[in-house]
From TrEMBL:
The organism's place on the tree of life at top rank: Bacteria
Keyword check for Cell cycle: no
PROSITE patterns assigned to the protein according to its UniProt record, in alphabetical order: TONB_DEPENDENT_REC_3
Protein's recorded name: TonB-dependent receptor
Keyword terms, alphabetized: Cell outer membrane, Membrane, Receptor, Signal, Transmembrane, Transmembrane beta strand, Transport
Family annotation (InterPro entries): Beta-barrel_TonB_sf, CarboxyPept-like_regulatory, Plug_dom, Plug_dom_sf, TonB-dep_OMP_SusC/RagA, TonB-dep_OMP_SusC/RagA_CS, TonB-dep_rcpt-like
Residues in the signal sequence: 1-30
Membrane-topology descriptor: Multi-pass membrane protein
Pfam families: CarbopepD_reg_2 (PF13715), Plug (PF07715)
Species per Swiss-Prot/TrEMBL record: Pedobacter panaciterrae
Membership in a protein family: Belongs to the TonB-dependent receptor family.
Compartments, as annotated in UniProt: Cell outer membrane
Amino acid sequence: MKKKLHFSKELKLCFILSSLFILCCQAVFAQSNITGTVSDKSGPLIGVGVQVKGTSASTTTSQNGAYTISVPNAGNAVLVFSYIGYTTQEVAVNGRSTVNVSLVESASDLSEVVVVGYGTQKKKDLTGAISIVKASDVQKRQGTTVAESLQGLATGIRVRGGGQPGSEAQIQIRGLKNFGANNPLYVIDGLVTSANRDFNPADIESIQILKDASAAAIYGSRAANGVIIITTKRGLDGPMKIEFSGKSSLQTIPRYDLAETEEFSRLNFMAYDNAKINRQQLDLNTNTDWQDVAFRTGNVQDYNLSFSGGSKDATYFVSGGYFGNKGTVISTDFDRLSFRVNTKGTKGIFTIGENLAISSSKNNEMSGNPILDVVRMLPTIPVYDAGHPGGYGYGDEAKARTFGTNPLAIANLEDRINQNLRIRGNLFAELQLLKPLKFRTSLGYETSRDHYTYLKKDGFWTLNQAYDPAILNENRGESSTVLIENTLTFNKEFGRHSLTVIGGQSYQKDNYALMWGTKRNILQNSTTGHYYDVLDQGNEAQTGGYRNRADLISYFGRLEYNYADKYLLNAVIRTDGVSRFGPDYKFGSFPSVSGAWRISKEDFFKSSWIDDLKIRANYGTLGSSDIGAYEYMAFVNTFSAIPMGPNQNLQSGSTQVQLANRDLHWEEVTQQNYGIDAAFLHNKLSISAEYFISKTDGVLIRYPLLISTGNDGGNPFVNGGILGNRGFEFTASYVENSSEFKYNVTANLTTLNNKVLGLGYNKNKTFVGNTVTEVGQPIGMWYVLQTDGLFQNANEVASYKNANGKVIQPAAQPGDIRYKDNDGDGEITNKDKVVVGSPWADYELGLNIGAAYKGFEFSMDWFGSFGSKVFNGPRSVMDNFSDNSNYRAGVQPWTPENPNTSVPRAFYSSTINARGDTDRWLENGSFARMKYIGISYNIPNTLLKRIGFNNAKVILSGQNLITITKYTGLDPEFSNGSVFEKGFDFGAFPNLRTVSLGLNFGF
């Protein structure tokens, strides 16, 4: 049976408007033209920018490097030719009708145009801390999102990703600014949005990362955690170009080396015997490899097709993509369909354009945590057991008492499906009022429809599981964002002076609504086994929902001044008003100022090997309002009721359940940045160094209050913390393009130190799990008991005393762990815990290498993180012997015959050697990983002409193939959602090894 496709009204409208817009943007008017070709020593260059200096007239070279451009005054006109990787040239027309140009390759293109907030700047004129990432470096990696592909490509960013289908990487720019998510602001084609799993990275043209206040302050309150600006692809002047990229990948998940039945039973019997407890009746005829049950070879299919072209007055870019990821864990997968239309048309002084993106995704989410389940389950437990409801094996009290979960059972008995339809885009118009004055207006809109379903079927997946009937839960959420922005830009050169002034206004409205329903006792078809998974089935209905709205209104301005390319000044101020705060605190102003001095332009500077030398400094503030929409208001429960009167009639009422804080105000981030940029050896070698200091005042945190105060609805927000970050960043690049063998090497270094400067309300420290966050120290330092080897005999136990002669661990036996009595009271208690290490890396390194020879290209990226200490949660399960879990293969616990080991004696049903709050489970988290390696071959032009292609490339690549580390867990590069326990690995999903084969071609 064929399924009928149903499109929403919004989707139909977007398709119709996009088609009409493309057709309407083909206006062409005749003018006198200058023609020519642009080439380098290897031949014609396609896509070179050609502009009439001092005007908005521009075009790009098409096939064979040809161009045509209208010039108002050919006698005095100057053409500017620019191309990434080549030195920009200015050529006087002098009345000619044909101008041919040969460009020279440049290792460091300082004339490259960089997209900044509400405008552009030349790379050489930057005064703030901005990292530029090549789109090709991101797109060569196989990633679901942009963030996970940025690791190691820029300084100052910390990226941790995961290998689950549809997973989204965590990214932090220059440390933790608050105790929240610390996600950066994404701006895509001028629209404030997100670049998560529903955004197609293949559409990216350029990426800029704004890291400090001077660069990001133009975005004000939303930029406290940095800004990532993404510009998507545009059409070029010329005939239609069709581009295709396809990539197929195989993925494997790292595995533990676990004991099989023979080894497991021997160690398990030892633990029971040492505890003087009767052994389990293990099924020694079963030998289940639970990793084989839970894991599989995953694959990714990533295909993209685009059409682009246009004239000098109107261009278009249309793309479609499919991304499908079969997960490495059973019953997980992710699919995404994406569609994009970018158009732009110009008529005289008027320009209009739009950017529209539509995506539809479906994620079959993972149930349980198979990374831990494969450890908790015993090899003596069969996968299936007909004696259990549902028919799955998960142990029993007599033969296999475990708290593990059968990963196959929970995957089959739970269905978690998350679907999303997102439409986003903007419509913009520009009016060139005067030659130096331009007005731009932009209307952005984004809407997202989320549909989540959870079906729990009849059956069991773990021992002693309480019975629950079949349950269906369904959530539907809808969000929308409206963004209206108007800017006025003045750009003028006065001799050696250059001035750009931008003023603007912005309004953003965010709405979100959610409704949900749950039913129990969902009916099942006894013949097919299918569940009727709709909410009109079952009983015991429960429903709920809510709506949120937040508004932001802003006014901003920026001044850019350049004198003789030597002295650069940039000043920004933005005022934001947000509905999230009380009436007296809604508005905040965030100024910044930055300056640079290009020493190499001074007359006194004489150097034959230094091509460019610039120093810069800036100071500025940013704000943050990362809280809920109504946190300053009282939370009222309207469901309360009490009996009143002589007849005790039930009367409804309302109760305030969360105390309100009407004094909530902006978090304010103050930042300083000092940098130096230099280029040497004819721009072949370039370096950039930064030192920064930041401080966040009034950090928004939830403050714990006693229920006796009337606070029964969650802890209210307060401005109760002060955080500081400082660090150093360094990047060096060397590019050699002068010979047939071309190569480039880029290395970067990032150091970061975060420190808690205050917790507010006279609070000095806070404890979370095995960590302490203390004023004057970094967040989440490890705070545990210290171990001091193993007792080898009874005499060592008896002689381990404090200064007063008290035996510290009188109950210990030979082979038990000796703990340090740090407070000297003769007992091992929580008072003996001390800070033993930091989860934060001392420094992180990136190394990117590329080479090309004739038709072959090679690329390799390394990333390293050094100096952190991490908690190996899975090993704390495998090595504790206190309950029934599987063990590491080859583990050697202490015995009188095997005293030379660091593993204590196996002892069941006791925490004497299995405490989770000790330094025994802390390990060196340093690692170096080859993130990417790839080789490609460009098919020769002689062959391409026969099949009608302009270009074609075959790529073979791998990711995460080599990792150098002492960490014994699955992956030292794990992701953790807790700010206070960043170094805690308790079954985090690892990064996957990936091998890909790709094909790109165009015609």
